[in-house]
């Protein structure tokens, strides 16, 4: 037990349980328990996860990774499409430049 002396008297706090640090699972658990939820990045990530994971059912848990990967694929495809359009604009501009000046 930890004992501290304060202005109001002696305060005793119960000992905190210590997790074994040797296993990978306990290391991951300790890391998860140390995460501060006050970070805006963590809050944003949790909000994004909550919007894509509306219910906590076994079926939803099984499909969570698949749904996240589908969303990531959709975003990547739109990114590639946008660059394809940009490439087409650049090619057209280069062709115009070449025709006009050469």
- Indicate the proportion of strand residues: 5-15%
Order of helix and strand elements from N to C terminus: EEHHH
Number of E-type strands = 2
Structural class: mainly alpha
Low-pLDDT sequence parts = none
Total of DSSP H or I helical runs spanning 4+ residues: 3
In round numbers, the mean pLDDT is 75
Task: Report what the structure shows.
This protein has about 100 residues and is mainly α. It has one domain. It is about 65% helix and about 10% strand. The chain is built from 3 helices and 2 strands, in the order E-E-H-H-H. It has a two-stranded antiparallel ribbon. A hairpin with a 2-residue loop joins strand 1 and strand 2. The longest helix is centred in the C-terminal third of the chain and has 44 residues, at about 60-100. The protein starts with a strand and ends with a helix. The model has no long low-confidence stretch (mean pLDDT about 75).
């Amino acid at each position: 037990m930890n004992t501290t002396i304060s202005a109001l008297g002696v305060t005793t706090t119960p000992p905190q349980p210590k997790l074994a640090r040797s296993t990978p699972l306990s290391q991951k658990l300790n890391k998860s328990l140390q995460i501060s939820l006050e970070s805006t990045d963590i809050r944003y990530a949790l909000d994004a996860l909550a919007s894509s994971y509306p219910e906590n059912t076994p079926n939803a848990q099984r499909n969570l990774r698949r749904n996240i990967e589908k969303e990531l694929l959709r975003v990547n495809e739109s990114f590639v499409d946008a660059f394809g359009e940009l490439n087409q604009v650049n090619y057209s501009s280069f062709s115009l430049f070449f025709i006009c000046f050469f």
